[in-house]
Amino acid sequence: MNGSGNAVTYANNNQIYIAGRPSYINYSTSQKISRPSNSDDTRSVNNVLLLTIMNPIYPITTDVLYTICNNCGPVQRIVIFRKNGVQAMSAQRAKASLNGADIYSGCCTLKIEYAKPTRLNVFKNDQDTWDYTNPSLSGQGTVQLMHSVC
């Protein structure tokens, strides 16, 4: 408890940066933090995956994610949201093969889970978004996540 108290006190008096981004430290209201294992993934299996890149020391682009995911099967679209991590999409075999793997030795660790959306629409091809089923896309555009309605 002393270590966590010291971290919160220090963070209240100093700006903390993680991977070059401002970060905030506070106490959790939970008594225990548990992460689901591969078998505990409660989201339905679909062809859209959410990849969270932990410790992203090196640049992550659609080319990097395509290179590692395409070995598990054809990649249709990738979208990167640059927030507290990097996210992308592929399929079931990629999740089983790549979850917990490092993109680069000792960093850029993948955490893979099924995303809520069942379809990903991409309207431009660049370093953060790419539709491999429509390589002629270019220029400004937007991304839409689509939930299926059945």
Automatic annotation (TrEMBL):
MF terms from GO for this chain are: RNA binding
Q: Where is the PTBP1-like RNA recognition motif domain?
A: 45-116
| Keywords associated with the record | Repeat, RNA-binding
Q: Which Pfam families match?
A: RRM_8
InterPro entries, per database record: Nucleotide-bd_a/b_plait_sf, PTBP1-like_RRM2, RBD_domain_sf
Q: Where does the source fall among the domains of life? A: Eukaryota
* UniProt-recorded name of the protein: Heterogeneous nuclear ribonucleoprotein L
Q: What high-level taxonomic lineage is stated for the organism?
A: Eukaryota, Metazoa, Chordata, Craniata, Vertebrata
